[in-house]
């Protein structure tokens, strides 16, 4: 068995783990990232593309914001379609100028991989059978196998950024860990197409046939979603059927301007809320999907992970550069406070805009009244905008 040592061992080579590694490396703190899959597999994931302004700033601090700033699109507002009309939420107006950046998660990950390579950062791909040991001691370590060889990595801290199915959260004893979950009775059928976006800003649509979302990756790459029963199968949806259903849920003038084309990716994503507490156990710290998952309605999944990384980054900086452990000691409580607010916002947006299979007419009237109130109140619009662009870290 080979034995190596680093200061911070990071499990998970997605954007969260790579971002933390990049930030720490720039400040002289050693890290090694361990990823179960290949780099091509990680870059093949099609995920969210709306970045809060705080996350965008963190990318810039990591030295990874150049392409994001050049190719990403700054959005100052979003549209909500309902009752055949479109109402706009002016994000910048209601937040004192804050905005979001539309830039695909795949591109974020690609930029972070390039930055890690440029700095000589160590990312171990196809690390199998990762196991965590002695987490309550001051000398934790992890073991893994690669190409038939066993390895041990001694470290000061282990960061579990390895997603919902990774080993990190499972390493916390069941009598310590508490999990909260809400599963929604529908999913999102998503289509990626090489077509011009139907709108310069995202459109969230509430319709009696179900929710729809018009999003984008660029001016020539569009991402569209429709709410479908969770029992549906992608094979049961032809491209023509998808476009017809999407058009039926949009205002007539928007549907008339929709450019359609062959799908280059099509998938159904389930919707659920999940939170694990605490996010720290000994010298193990959870981040991102390892600790929490949100419905995609509020665009908070990747952004919630970024806030975890912000708190971990500053906590580790204070530990190594100032001999101050307050940030690490308070990490779980601080991170969870923001996580639960993101969960609340995503839950509210999901309930506001989706058609629930067991809903009664009174429920739909409540939804419409909520929307009518939203666009009659600056205070309500300010609350939505503040949450959408991202609460302060």
Taken as a percent bin, the fraction of beta residues is 25-35%
Rg = 21 Å
Structural class: alpha/beta
Named at the architecture level, the CATH assignment of the largest domain is: 3-Layer(bba) Sandwich
Report the principal-axis shape.
globular
Strand order of the largest sheet: 7-6-15-16-17-14-18-21
CATH level-four homologous superfamily name of the largest domain: FAD/NAD(P)-binding domain
CATH class category of the largest domain: Alpha Beta
Number of helical segments with 4 or more residues: 14
Q: pLDDT average, as an integer?
A: 96
Characterize the main sheet.
Answer: 8 strands, mixed
Give the low-confidence spans.
Answer: none
Q: Helicity level, as a percent range?
A: 25-40%
Q: Kindly, what is the distance between the CA atoms of the first and last residues, rounded to a whole number of angstroms?
A: 41 Å
Q: How many domain regions?
A: 2
Query: How many DSSP-defined strands?
Result: 21
CATH topology description of the largest domain: FAD/NAD(P)-binding domain
């Amino acid at each position: 068995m080979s034995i190596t040592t680093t200061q911070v061992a990071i499990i998970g080579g997605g954007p969260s783990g790579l971002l933390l590694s990049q930030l720490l490396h720039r400040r002289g703190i050693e890290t090694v990232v361990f990823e179960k899959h290949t780099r091509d597999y990680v870059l093949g994931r099609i995920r969210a593309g709306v970045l809060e302004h705080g996350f965008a700033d963190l990318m810039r601090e990591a030295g990874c914001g150049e392409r994001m700033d050049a190719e990403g699109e700054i959005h100052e507002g979003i549209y909500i379609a309902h009752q055949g009309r479109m109402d706009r939420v002016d994000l910048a107006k209601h937040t004192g100028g804050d905005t979001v950046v539309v830039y695909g998660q795949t591109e974020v990950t690609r930029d972070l991989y390039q930055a890690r390579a440029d700095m000589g950062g160590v990312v171990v791909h196809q690390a199998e059978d990762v196991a965590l040991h002695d987490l309550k001691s001051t000398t934790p370590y992890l073991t893994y196998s690669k190409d038939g060889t066993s390895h041990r990595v001694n470290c000061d801290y282990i960061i579990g950024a390895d997603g919902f199915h990774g080993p990190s959260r499972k390493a916390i004893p069941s009598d310590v860990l508490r999990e909260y979950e809400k599963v929604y009775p529908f999913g999102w059928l998503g289509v990626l197409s090489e077509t011009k976006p139907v709108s310069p800003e995202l459109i969230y649509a509430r319709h009696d046939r179900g929710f729809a979302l018009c999003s984008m990756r660029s001016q020539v790459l569009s991402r569209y979603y429709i709410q479908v029963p969770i029992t549906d199968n992608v094979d049961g949806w032809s491209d023509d059927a998808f476009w017809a259903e999407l058009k039926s849920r949009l205002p007539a003038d928007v549907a008339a301007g929709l450019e359609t084309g062959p799908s280059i990716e099509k998938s159904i994503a389930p919707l659920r809320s999940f939170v694990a507490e605490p996010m720290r156990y000994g010298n193990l710290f959870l981040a991102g999907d390892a600790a929490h998952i949100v419905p995609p309605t509020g665009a908070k999944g990747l952004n919630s992970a970024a806030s975890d990384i912000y708190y971990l980054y500053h906590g580790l900086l204070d530990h190594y550069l100032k001999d101050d452990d307050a940030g690490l000691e308070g990490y779980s409580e601080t991170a969870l406070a923001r996580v639960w607010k993101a969960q609340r916002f995503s839950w509210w947006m999901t309930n506001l805009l989706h058609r629930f299979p067991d809903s009664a007419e009174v429920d739909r009237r409540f939804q419409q009244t909520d929307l009518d109130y939203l666009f009659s109140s600056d205070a309500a619009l300010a609350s939505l905008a503040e949450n959408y662009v991202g609460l302060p870290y």
